[in-house]
User: Fold H(2)-dependent methylenetetrahydromethanopterin dehydrogenase-related protein from Methanothermococcus okinawensis.
Amino acid sequence: MKISIYGAGNQKFYIEELKLQEKLGGEPPFGGGAMAIEFARAGHDVVLSEPNRDVMDEELWRKIEEAGVKVVRDDTEAAKHGEIHLITRTFSENTIKSIKNILQHIPKDSVIAICDSTPVIMIYSNVERELRFMRKDVGLVSMCPNAIPGTGMYSRYVIGHKSLDGEEYSTEEQFNRCVDLVKSINREVVIKPIDLVPLITGLSTHITTVTLSGILNYYRMKSLMTEDGEKISEREVLYVLQTISAILETSSIRGLIKALDVDLLIENAKASKLLDEQEDLEAAIHVLSNLSKEFSREVEKCEVKPISVVASQALVEEIRRTVGGAAADGVINRCKKKFLT
Assistant:
């Protein structure tokens, strides 16, 4: 297959700052560079686009090129090549611009695979016009490695193209093309709804893991206090998460911290540590107790904006019931775009 990869990975950051070899094993190049080598060695025709050659030394570039990878500096050149387009760059303000540029040049029926934990639904909502009116033939897939490619822990890809509400972002053929690509390098394929992939891959797993741990320990305490602990806990957890989400959406992370009053939160959290299993709570208290002075000053300057705390899925269903049809879909889709604005 013809494969285009966008982003070789900042090897100096991986090696010197993160020290990936010491922590996770493997050998450089890591990230997009490692993927390019692996796919080329499996017999695929691979083009790697990286405008900044300074992300790694020449010895690593030679290693990539000797594997049979064609290295280019222009995304447009890479876009004209592939039938599968792998976006490995960390999400930034330029990501949507880059994808819109790629869409102008990629061959018919191509599929774009997002290989970091950026939600495909967020990306789709911001390139929907291009995909619906100019490139209906192009599909979007989430295709995230379980660890940084090239490291010792890298062993599988989590792939999705259907959302939990049944919406498909690619055809079955385009999705299976990505599955076949992963199988061709003898990596495991795990298929999940496209909404869930960002929650269980990449750096976002930190948020998911810590949150889920706190919820489960909270359930454990509630079950000791009442027979209906789990049912009651679900309602309380829902309220806490929705409120945090609403403040974060309107007032940023600094506004959230100001609204919660960290000192008061820490004091009350210490009083709620009743079980030996609550090690996650201890870790959280440690983090909150060691916010930098500069960050704390920024928090004090932040404005906390008004919010309406509602159960989000209940609101979606109410909109569909009362508004209905294309109008309801339009409202919901416009709200999805708010993840990036």
The chain has two domains: 2-200, 204-331. DSSP finds 16 helices and eight strands in the chain. The chain has a mean pLDDT of 92. Residues 229-260 form the longest helix (32 residues).
